[in-house]
Specification:
about 110 residues; alpha/beta; Transcription Regulator spoIIAA; 4 helices; about 30% strand
């Protein structure tokens, strides 16, 4: 998995996940989210448009990131999930907690 981070606005970080978000890649995402928060970007958008697969470890990394962001009065949102990712979110009912936004711009606009 390749992770790319940008900061389009103050206190906002966009993390683009490219590849498979599984047990091998999840620790890297957790670390990336923690780094963003420690640098003051507690409003995080995870761009899943290039994520081909997600498993329970990947979901755990997203939920853990959401908790960390909210502990600092921030938030974590997901944007542009692929079909597979959206199906897993629906099956686990996590789409209620991590409501997917159609595009990164939509997710950042509401911050």
């Amino acid at each position: 998995m390749e992770l790319t981070t940008t900061s389009p606005l103050p206190r906002v970080a966009v993390i683009r996940c490219e590849g498979r978000l599984n047990m091998v890649a999840a620790p890297g995402l957790r670390s990336c989210i923690e780094d963003c928060i420690s640098r003051g970007a507690d409003r995080i958008v995870v761009d899943l448009s290039a994520t081909s697969f997600i498993d329970s470890s990947g979901l755990g990394a997203l939920i853990g990131g959401l908790k960390k962001a909210r502990q600092t009065s921030g938030d974590l949102r997901i944007a542009a999930p692929t079909e597979q990712v959206e199906a897993v979110l629906r099956l686990t009912n996590l789409d209620r907690v991590l409501r997917p936004y159609p595009e990164v711009d939509d997710a950042t606009r509401e911050f």
